[in-house]
């Protein structure tokens, strides 16, 4: 089923929403962003409205989008009518609960349509659209935060809590699940699918076309031997075949040596093995401006500095390939440039 098709999926039945969940994370950050008071106040207002709807007071009025809780028949019917109405075919109140969905929605939707994004997308070291995201209220990825905005579309990621997705659909909130593409074709398809869900198919095509133009600008001479490369991620992980990163390396004209180790797409590899692989280019999966951390200890090991004497060391921020979006073109460009610089020294 396409993402656009998933928008219309809903579930019937009654449900009580634990409205206060997730407030701890926001308190720690000291941020706000939830409209219309606390989550319990929001739910209290909704409960009052839903009780009236149950008694018939709201019948004949416009469709009502509950910010929180409930799933009574009249209310769900109103929500379903609003979703199916041509006037609401193009979402106007979008909430994203996933970093990768944040970035695509901010690229594709009209200004003001996206009402809230995850706090992760506001970190310039982790996100590509941090400046745009910083202007919006942040959320912690919780269902009740999304419902507080009375959304007509909620975007979730591949690892979202199934109970949260079920809750959103039960109260009539259309949900689109954004995946984690492992191929360039998957990236193109996801951009187009989400653009269709947002009612912005032309922008989706334009975004794909811009990405394709950048990729077309990376010309690899097929007659030259491919340089050998290996990726080292925090905590000593690498990337093998069957991954988006593996395809990025191939498009940049590099041979991923991890494929020779018969490992899965994402697995730890000792530094001794990295040193023995005989790579031309060692790609460190991090931003050069990132703060030191235990996870990055393997990337700062003295052995890495020693390997720099016989390998080209390239730092590539994870934000360029963590999400399947148009930023993969920049990752290809950077790696291809590193390959050309390496060839010039040989």
Blueprint (SSEs and pairs):
Elements: H1 3-6, H2 23-29, H3 39-55, H4 73-84, E1 94-96, H5 99-108, E2 114-118, H6 130-133, E3 138-139, H7 143-147, E4 153-156, H8 162-170, E5 175-177, H9 184-197, H10 201-216, E6 227-232, E7 237-239, H11 244-251, E8 254-256, E9 266-268, H12 271-276, E10 281-285, H13 302-307, E11 312-316, H14 328-345
Parallel strand pairs: 1-2, 1-4, 2-3, 4-5, 6-8, 6-10, 10-11
Antiparallel strand pairs: 7-9
CATH classification class of the largest domain: Alpha Beta
- Assign a percent range to the helix content: 25-40%
- Name the CATH superfamily classification of the largest domain: Nitrogenase molybdenum iron protein domain
Total domain count: 2
What is the makeup of the main sheet?
5 strands, parallel
Give the SSE string. Answer: HHHHEHEHEHEHEHHEEHEEHEHEH
Q: What is the mean predicted local confidence, pLDDT?
A: 76
Gross geometry: elongated
N-C termini distance:
50 Å
Give the oligomeric state.
single chain
Per CATH, which architecture of the largest domain?
3-Layer(aba) Sandwich
Overall SS class: alpha/beta
């Amino acid at each position: 089923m396409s993402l656009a098709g998933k928008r219309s999926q809903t579930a019937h039945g009654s449900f009580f929403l634990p409205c206060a969940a997730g407030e701890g994370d926001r308190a720690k950050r000291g941020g706000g962003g939830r409209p219309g008071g606390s989550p319990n106040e929001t739910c209290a207002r909704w409960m009052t409205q839903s009780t009236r709807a149950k008694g018939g007071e709201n019948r004949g009025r416009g469709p009502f989008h509950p910010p929180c809780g409930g799933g009574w028949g009249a209310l769900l019917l109103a929500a379903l009518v609003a979703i199916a109405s041509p006037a609401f075919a193009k979402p106007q109140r979008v909430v994203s609960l996933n970093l990768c969905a944040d970035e695509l929605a901010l690229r594709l939707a009209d200004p003001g349509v996206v009402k809230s994004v995850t706090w992760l997308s506001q970190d310039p070291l982790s996100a590509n659209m941090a400046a745009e995201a910083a202007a919006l209220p942040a959320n912690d990825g919780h269902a009740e935060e999304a419902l507080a905005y009375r959304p007509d579309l909620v975007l979730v990621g591949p690892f979202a809590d199934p109970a949260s997705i079920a809750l959103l659909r039960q109260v009539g909130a259309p949900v689109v699940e954004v995946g984690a593409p492992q191929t360039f074709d998957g990236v193109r398809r996801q951009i187009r699918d989400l653009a269709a869900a947002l009612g912005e198919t032309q922008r989706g095509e334009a975004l794909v076309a811009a990405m394709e133009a950048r990729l077309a600008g990376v010309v690899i001479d097929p007659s030259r031997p491919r340089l050998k490369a290996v990726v080292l991620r925090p905590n000593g992980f690498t990337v093998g075949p069957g991954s988006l990163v593996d395809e990025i390396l191939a498009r940049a004209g590099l041979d991923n040596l991890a494929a020779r180790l018969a490992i899965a797409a994402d697995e730890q590899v000792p530094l001794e093995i990295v040193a023995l692989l005989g790579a031309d280019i060692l790609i460190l999966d991090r931003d050069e401006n990132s703060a030191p951390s235990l996870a990055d200890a393997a990337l700062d090991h003295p052995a890495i500095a020693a390997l720099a004497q016989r390998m080209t060391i390239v730092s590539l921020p994870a934000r360029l390939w963590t999400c399947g979006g148009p930023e993969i073109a920049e990752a290809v460009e950077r790696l291809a440039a590193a390959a050309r610089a390496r060839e010039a020294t040989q």
